[in-house]
């Protein structure tokens, strides 16, 4: 037995990756008495649920608003079970979003009845379509349970079937970027489930930033005897006699190869990464299960630190979705998302509209977000990449100054994160933030592990992307492991 083997005990569970799925799975298993080792290549836990600090500002990487947190929301059960509600404070977001284009400007609330009434006043000829839309969204679970949902129905096709006014469709699709980049590809059922949660429980921000949630979950692991190993990268899954028996890993910035053994392995890493890079070649054939699926889009984020709140300039909205005038109908959305940054539709989140805990007294932080793709940044050398980022930064500062005149003078800090940034920190293919694109094919595809004790807990599983999807995936994965080992 080598010195390293003596130092590394046998674990019940090894979790690869500290995104919300891996953290939730690890926390539940550790709290259930399992000996857990979680290995994360980044210097902090959380994946997209992280923050970073620059010039006195805490910048939120991923969270604008977390859906749900109503009494029947599964996340509430999970958070109570893990003790998260004792250590993490959630702040209610005042409205769902504000939608703006050159023709319409409307605040969308989290109250479905209020919105149905408001939209009917604005679009009286669309009364029946509005009623049908909210009926579907608010009763989606019953509709799915009764098998009345067409699995091939997309958001775009459904809206076209019930509504004629294109601006009304765009208003309802204001937050499309929370899920996908094309309404004609997005599964109607998936969209309804997510929107239902926002309309039922409202939106919530984690005070101090999403890192607070990630750290709390990591603390559950360590407080219950588990280990969270940061700055280490898993390089392979060990397989013996048809079972996953451990992992190979190493310190990210150099170090000797290490191994750890466990009864079960949970991959919070993306499913394509597991198939292509972590499993022995003989097991890579399970890629055929998801060969028709593609990684979802990534996001570009422009982070701002302001010398004072945008409220001082008369800005009143937490989350504003700005659609470019060139987007006349649903069919224009995807081409706009893949077009020039000068016209690409975006959202601006003003965290100073709530008690976010992200900035010092009198100061504020905000972020512009739009769809992004690694293809926008490939084939650039280091200097060209930096130059391109500065060009995009300038474009969006000018666009934000048009939205909120004078805000450029408040900017103390600005930085751009691209799809390549997301890819580097999460190792997700194409920098995808939502796992596989949530198309109708994804909704119908159930991916099974090629090894009975290798499990998946991430946005890449059936529950889908976003904070909620990842948390659900991790918790359900942990329950499955616990039941299997009884």
Mean pLDDT: 96
Label the CATH architecture of the largest domain.
Answer: Alpha-Beta Complex
CATH class category of the largest domain: Alpha Beta
Radius of gyration: 22 Å
Biggest sheet architecture:
7 strands, mixed
CATH topology of the largest domain: Polyamine Oxidase, Chain A, domain 2
Shape verdict: globular
Give the uncertain stretches in residue-range form.
1-7
Q: Which percent bin holds the helix content?
A: 25-40%
Strand content: 15-25%
How many independent structural domains?
A: 2
Number of helices: 16
Look at the helices and sheets and give the structural class. Answer: alpha/beta
Number of separate strands? 19
Distance N to C terminus: 30 Å
Characteristics:
single chain, Polyamine Oxidase, Chain A, domain 2, 7-stranded mixed beta sheet, 16 helices, globular, disordered N terminus
Could you walk me through the main structural features you see in this protein, from its secondary elements to its overall organization?
- The structure is a single chain.
- This protein is α/β, with parallel strands linked by helices.
- It has two domains: 3-49 and 209-294 and 434-484, FAD/NAD(P)-binding domain (3-Layer(bba) Sandwich); 97-206 and 298-372 and 378-417, Polyamine Oxidase, Chain A, domain 2, CATH 3.90.660.
- 34% of the residues lie in helices and 21% in strands.
- It has 16 helices and 19 strands.
- Strands 1, 2, 10, 11, 12, 13 and 19 form a seven-stranded mixed β-sheet that branches. Strands 8-7-15-16-17-14-18 form a seven-stranded mixed β-sheet. A three-stranded antiparallel β-sheet has the order 5-9-6.
- The longest helix has 22 residues, at 382-403.
- The model is unreliable at 1-7 (pLDDT under 50).
